[in-house]
Amino acid sequence: MRFSAVLLALTGLASAHYTIPRISSGGVSGSDWQYTRRTENHYSNGPVTNVASSQMTCYELSPGTPAPQTLAVTAGSSITFHANTALSHPGPVNVYLAKAPSTAATFDGRGPVWFKIYEESATISSSGISWGSYNAASYTVPIPRCIANGEYLVRFEHIALHSAGSVGGAQLYLSCSQISVTGGSGTARPNLLSFPGAYSPNDPGLLIGIYWPIPTSYTNPGGRPLTC
């Protein structure tokens, strides 16, 4: 019975894909792709599966093409990411920032410039492992008060783990949006990462069977988020 239940779960999850085309903050919510760079999967909704691919930076349809506008965000407030449909696979949300040397619109996000500001923890019980983002159409995270003022790319990532029992089975749904931050203290000294480069296909957070046996722990890839 357990094997049959797993097969049914996998079958139901197999065809559901999504994009993350819109952000909002401080009561301002634009349209799809207004503040977010259009992603390669904007029609297909398909994921990134090769974590060594250049798609891991921002999954851009046309690299070097900025979003039309940059959203003003206050440090210490929150930013909400909106999917085009529900995040219909189990797995965690991770959010990263990269400070632009000048404007977010002219920044390519290449090299060791990213730092994690948020990771979603798993809930594990005798009945299974789960994440609160499952089937959510939007997801809200705090912007740390201690970051410096300036323009940033913010990289939202949802890792779908329903097929992650083999190398390359994890599905990453991601996008980068342009924000301009004010009100930050500038005291943060984050550890910087590169995309691609931050993840290995063998990371325990990417190579994991989540159905049976039930995992006893889960570690998000990309290290720990910034704390202020």
Automatic annotation (TrEMBL):
Its EC number is 1.14.99.56. It is an enzyme of class 1 (oxidoreductase). Pfam families: AA9. Keywords: Carbohydrate metabolism, Cellulose degradation, Copper, Disulfide bond, Hydrolase, Metal-binding, Monooxygenase, Oxidoreductase, Polysaccharide degradation, Secreted, Signal. InterPro entries: AA9, AA9_LPMO. It is found in: Secreted. One of its GO terms (cellular component) is extracellular region. It catalyses: [(1->4)-beta-D-glucosyl]n+m + reduced acceptor + O2 = 4-dehydro-beta-D-glucosyl-[(1->4)-beta-D-glucosyl]n-1 + [(1->4)-beta-D-glucosyl]m + acceptor + H2O. One of its GO terms (biological process) is cellulose catabolic process. The keyword Transmembrane helix does not apply. The keyword Secreted applies. Residues 17-218 form the Auxiliary Activity family 9 catalytic domain. CDD domains: LPMO_AA9. Its cofactor is Cu(2+). One of its GO terms (molecular function) is metal ion binding. Residues 1-16 form the signal peptide. Belongs to the polysaccharide monooxygenase AA9 family. This is lytic cellulose monooxygenase (C4-dehydrogenating).
